[in-house]
Amino acid sequence: MSNPLTEVQQFGQSIWYDFISRDLILSGELRRLVEHDGVLGVTSNPAIFEKAIAGSKDYDPAIHALVSQGVSGGKAIFEHLAIQDIQLGCDVLRPVYDSTAGGDGFVSLEVSPHLAYDTAGTLDEARRLWAAVGRPNLMIKVPATTEGLPAIEQLIGEGINVNVTLLFAVDFYQAVHQAYMTGLERLVAGGGDASRVASVASFFVSRIDAAVEKRVSSELESGADAERSRGLEALRAEVAIANAVEAYGCFRDELARERWQALAARGARPQRVLWASTGTKSPDLPQTLYVDSLIGADTVNTVPATTFAAFKATGKVRDALGEDAQTRRAAARARLESVDTLGISLQQVTDELLRDGCQLFCDAFDKLLAAVETKRSALSGGR
Questions:
Q1: How many Å apart are CA 58 and CA 246, to the nearest integer?
Q2: pLDDT for the residue 381
């Protein structure tokens, strides 16, 4: 039987699973997803761990054991739990990592979201988590903030795999790619092997359409004239994909330049574009919209469970980013220009999404730690 989840690989895309939990791993489900559905990686974030740990009793025995061993405090217990999950996930994905010579098979673990604007703190925690997990197919997630850029550069220069998360703006994506190349150049200059480090740039998709939709609805309710109303209506569910197409075009441009070619000659791997937040937010949109539309070479799509099942059942597989690429990019640019022309600042949208994204992850992280602390207290009998 055909399976769109594996068929996308013929066009150079990897499907990663946007979830991790103890049960997913120990039940054998993750291994099944890898072996039968072509899953080539796993991503996690504070919201995912909050759902996995706080939303079940699967971790209660481990929490009880950690308390008995003298581990105290919600953050310390969470890190023990998360590190073990990530290690187990990396072990399941290790055959993929080995068979692709380090090109795939990664599991991502994020530094504390409270460090999003702290370069030194990000570096310290990233190095500590990298050492604690001790797996070559780990990726450390670092938010795409101004303060995150030097951390990304430094970590790549040290040979640590990095998943750059919470990317929304195309111009900032270009800055991230520059940081990646500078890090590789630093690694090579120090005698390191560029082929042993990998990175992805996680470009968030559906949140952009959701944010634009709010602004469009507000403008229409305020009584826009007929011509402007038609223009605003045309933006619905169109901006996020246009933004992604332009980001991908910039990525392909970078790979054609001499600076990248020199690194590629030393064995460096492209910093693949990863499409994140690819579940649709509106029930009026096809569930697989952001998967069908963003298949292309050197890309990853990290797919949440519901969208994963929908794409397996009804996904439309084609080289969406490669077919008539110049025409599609020109249309995407025209769409993005029309956003500003109609009085909606895309820069403001992406700035707000980055700020809100960092805060949402902080909120989820704090909620997670509070839940772990509550469990710790209950399982230790109030000691």
A1: 42
A2: 64
